Amino acid sequence: MKVFLMYKDRNFDLQQKLPSNQQTLIQDLALDTLFNAMACGDEFLLEVARKAVLSGLNNDPDTILYRQDILRDCLENSAIVRTIYDIAVESIEREKKNYLSIFSRYPAAILHRSIEVMQMFVGMLKKLRTIADEHADKFKSEGFTAFFKMLNKELGDEYFASVQNHLRELKFREGVLISAELGKGNKGINYILRKPIDKKQSWMERIFAPKPLVYTFSIADRDESGARALSELKDRGINLVANALAQSTDHILAFFKTLRTELAFYIGCLNLYEHLTRMGEPACFPLPVAPVERLHSFKGLYDVCLALTLEQKIVGNDVNADNKDLVIITGANQGGKSTFLRSIGLAQLMMQCGMFVPAESFCASTCDGLFTHYKREEDVALKSGKLDEELNRISDIVDHITANSMVMFNESFAATNEREGSEIARQIVSALLEKHIKVFFVTHLYEFAHGFYDKKMANALFLRAERQADGTRTFKLIEGEPLQTSYGEDLYNSIFGTGN
């Protein structure tokens, strides 16, 4: 039985390798806030959220749209989806309680445990089949349609009747019928479990039917050695069927584990969506396109992690950066530049893993890699200067970056003087653009920003944090020429007062 709720043709691998810069992304984009909102205190949901979001950069637009359709079904039928998830979780937890531990090497114990587990699994599978019968028509996505169709095909009435019949026979209420041969030294070999004698014969047939020649012996009640020998004979006979049934339970357990893992991603999305809805924040399904289309436009995009932290609505931004490879953001201090930059990275990751994004509308090209280069605090160990540390991190990014990636700089190369920092930034950005890599750059380096502005590049966009005449920050980003001031005087006055 296959699940296929994350990919059309394969299961989601919870052990897959994540990007080498995963910890940097988590730190710079405050991803732990997003993961915790999705998990709601559940450690398993937290793990799946982390793996799904960070591995999303490997997804193409078709996979993203496939998941989006499934997520739409989840949003419209959240109670049903949560019930299916609960069935998977309960099945896994109940199976754990039947763990064999030290007795797992005895076939009789394996068989007994497997019968109990299979009986429990049958009950859980029947619950899934009932949900499929009653609610399949409410789901429209390709993924759920195929999932419910698989349940109807694999879990028919004949399947359940056959399983129950086998389980009854494997309890051996009428004893165990085993055949064997004599080998060297008259030792028994080729032990085979035989089908029990048909009990459906009439009493006349049972009385007058020819009887095979048999020999019998009995073991005394206190003959422990004989009882042990008889038990060993039984174990040899049922060994193969015990292992076969154990493998069947493992197969069904693997199905429930996969179902739990893949639904956990959507449960996390439901948790986050419900949280944002309570706050009155918008969320939309983005339109992903191939990297060659170079699209990036949105309305009302906001920093979802800041909204979750402050528990309030956040100012959103409208930007059209279609066919732009370079976006330089300048303007007033504490005007929302870094928050805007983080919203770009968060939206990209959320889109590529198949989630909704925190915006009114959003369309963007997918990227093959996402890298952040944010300013860091001074190295307290004094192992290197700030500029050396920044250049080392750039070197590490270059070692892993590929075409069609995105790099986000936040006040990088400000550890040196204006002229030197601007020249370093110019050379690095120019090299990235030559390799068809998209760049977002928040900076106070006027010479660097205005140098690109003067080039009148068709593939460059310049945004500025809006500041009103009285110094008020609107936290809106507007298109505009880079200014030579960041209005640090506003911050000074707000902290110390204007004085006399």
UniProtKB/TrEMBL annotation:
<keyword id="KW-0547">Nucleotide-binding</keyword>
<keyword id="KW-0067">ATP-binding</keyword>
<dbReference type="GO" id="GO:0030983">
    <property type="term" value="F:mismatched DNA binding"/>
</dbReference>
<dbReference type="GO" id="GO:0006298">
    <property type="term" value="P:mismatch repair"/>
</dbReference>
<dbReference type="InterPro" id="IPR045076">
    <property type="entry name" value="MutS"/>
</dbReference>
<protein>
    <submittedName>
        <fullName>DNA mismatch repair protein MutS</fullName>
    </submittedName>
</protein>
<dbReference type="InterPro" id="IPR000432">
    <property type="entry name" value="DNA_mismatch_repair_MutS_C"/>
</dbReference>
<dbReference type="InterPro" id="IPR027417">
    <property type="entry name" value="P-loop_NTPase"/>
</dbReference>
<dbReference type="GO" id="GO:0005524">
    <property type="term" value="F:ATP binding"/>
</dbReference>
<dbReference type="Pfam" id="PF00488">
    <property type="entry name" value="MutS_V"/>
</dbReference>
<dbReference type="GO" id="GO:0140664">
    <property type="term" value="F:ATP-dependent DNA damage sensor activity"/>
</dbReference>
<feature type="domain" description="DNA mismatch repair proteins mutS family">
    <location>
        <begin position="324"/>
        <end position="497"/>
    </location>
</feature>
<dbReference type="GO" id="GO:0005829">
    <property type="term" value="C:cytosol"/>
</dbReference>
<keyword id="KW-0238">DNA-binding</keyword>
